[in-house]
Amino acid sequence: MKAEFDLWAGSIKDNLTNVLAENIGFLVPTERIYIYPWRQSVPVDYQIVLDVVRCDGQLGDDALLVARWSILAGQDKELLAVSRSSIREPVTGSDYAAVVAAQSRALAKLSLEIVAAINASSQEH
């Protein structure tokens, strides 16, 4: 069934990036979150490289977010962590707003995984 009246507004890539940046900025907490490309004059403590492999969901089923990500530190871009996340969230309603809500919960869980890795690596250094 095609959902011709329930379409994503804007770029999903930009939307995911912005939400992830906001989530991480809230969880770390910091106001110094920059989305690539940033000015070279800006000192970067951590860089998160993210490749979203899959981000979808279906009515009456689950939303699935699969992403590969890594964390680099400082100007030398020291590799601190490499991971693959596969997050499944149930779609608890019968409309597309429920699918989007499940996708949002999955993105929140991904944010928590990334922040946990940042915190773990900062304790090691």
Structure commentary:
The chain has 125 residues and is an alpha+beta fold. It has a single domain (12-124), classed as 3-Layer(aba) Sandwich (Rossmann fold). Helices cover 36% and strands 30% of the residues. It has 2 helices and 3 strands, in the order H-E-E-E-H. The protein has helices at residues 12-27, 96-124; strands spanning 46-57, 62-73, 78-90. The protein has a 3-stranded antiparallel beta sheet, covered by helices on one side. Strand 2 (62-73) and strand 3 (78-90) form a beta hairpin. Helix 1 (12-27) packs across helix 2. It is elongated. The model has no long low-confidence stretch (mean pLDDT 87).
Which helices and strands occur, and which strands form pairs?
Elements: H1 12-27, E1 46-57, E2 62-73, E3 78-90, H2 96-124
Antiparallel strand pairs: 1-2, 2-3
Helix pairs in contact: 1-2
